[in-house]
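Reposting from the mailing list since nobody answered there.

I have sequence plus structure tokens for a pair of proteins and want to know whether others read the tokens the same way I do. The first protein:
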Amino acid sequence: MTRRLVLGGLAGSLASISMPSITNARVGPLENIVRLSSNENPYGPSKKALMAASQASSMGAYYPGKIAMELKKAIAEKNNLNMDQVALSSGSNEVLSAAVVAWGKEGKILSPDFTYDLHLRYAEGTGTEVVRLPLASDMSIDLDALENAIDDSISMVYVCNPNNPTGKTIDGNTLRDFCMRVGKKTTVIIDEAYNELTQNPEYSSMVDLVRENQNIIVTRTFSKLYGMAGMRVGYALGRSDLINIVGNHVMAWPNIVGLAAAHATYAEDDFIEFSLEKINQGREILNSTFKMHDIKPLPSETNFVFADIGRSVNKFEPKLRERNIQVHRAYPLYPNHLRVSLGKIEDLMKFRKVFSEVYNS
């Protein structure tokens, strides 16, 4: 048998092999499951982002080229910063983890005890000590308590605004004053994963303090507003010396597909407006669902709602799951509080029906 015949037969065999289909069950929520547990935005990515991602995937054999610098430049220009004040990473959790590990070498990390903490737990696993303080009685972050707890042993203060999982937003000027005072003693890192969803993002953001070269780092993500949670693109903004430290500790960089999608959609005003409209509509559905049962949810400017349902979530959540509604598990510190993420409007209407059935049963 000649080499040509062998290769010809191999080509024919390969042509007859059907590629496995990519179903939602393999890359996203299980079929027929309404997933309202992970603070995702199912209205993204935009068509423009998907087109850019598709084109970039054909170059998946290569490490990202200048697209990373182009995205960094776009972020810097939008925020009136220099490029050396921007660090990219695989989701904002990566720059958060890099920061707390780096500063954890110099001292303790101070944080509220009820907040997003995946990066804090990672830092603890590397030997960093994390000091956690309770929320205020209204479940807001107690800035006074955090400030009073700062001594020479604290190397960094972490604040998530709006906070996850409560959804509460700290007043912009109140947080700004806190950062300026505390920044004289230690570095402050503000997690703004949900900032772009708030009613007044510029007022709530601490990026203006970055422009003033204050001792502050701000982190952002493409997961929420842009609906790109699975594409893993995030970034940090800060004084160039702070960003240099963060960048030196980042281990996971954005992939070429995520970078291309992020660059394509970053200034896509039409999609941003559409995304915010859907998020606002969805949040109103959740709020009204709770209020139908005399449940008062905490005020939220995010893509999730947090409410005391007056009964054990450990017992309530499985009943929702049995009916194909997936929400966040119970929180040990607040066992009667349920966090529900936004989904598509039709999914939230399913939640309303099932929640009412379970609640009234």
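The second protein, same order (residues first, tokens after):
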Amino acid sequence: MRYLYIDTCAASAVALVDTDTSDVKTAEVADSRSQVESLSGLISRVLAGSVMPDCVMVSRGPAPFTGLRVGLVTARALGAAWGVPVLGVDELTVQATAAVSLWDAASRGANPDDGRIVTVMDARRHEVYAALFAADAGVSRLSEDWVGSLEVLAGQLTTWDPEFPSRGDLVRFVGNKADAVPTAVTLQPGIADLARAAQTVVARCLAGSDGETGVGFDLEKLRGESELLLMKRGLGTEPEYLRRPDIQEKK
């Protein structure tokens, strides 16, 4: 299977993954406000010399309004033009899944399931998007996606996991705002890591269980499925903002 992964939550990043050969072609631009100008060129770059992908996977946020919309609209347009499924994935879950793949299980203590992953992404307005996950085989979610200030996040983590303050070295932070957390030990997956993690997230959603660890799924079953059914599977492409857009129409 070949799939195109699009992520415009923090910047503009794309990856073309061939699961049969394990080849990954990536392209990205670090500017967090140039998605409109850069995304189509990045996609053309990774697709050059390749056959059409079998599906498109795209991050649906949470993320700031404009950049996120660019990625989602582009993914839908490509899916319609190519006649392939378009699958949306939660950004915070993908980040956590990629982080667990980079975190050596032996360093998570006697019981690797005690490890915790905190995804922290820039939400602008001096706020972050965040979520807490267990660093187990299924990257089990321990909170809903949340938006708020870094100062409030510390208390929120304890609300989600009362034992969080005592976990110490069993905690890793991931995301483009992870370095802003005082004393945080961070993991920094690249776009290739995130693209592979997206496939794992899709497979778990289709399996209907966070405990599933396989990454294979039957793509044919997804062809022609409605957006509503994909949403029920956790794979819809409706954007996740968690708050109203920065710019609003005057009344």
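Reply #1 (J.P.):
I read it the same way you do. Residues 209-215 have pLDDT under 50 and may be disordered.
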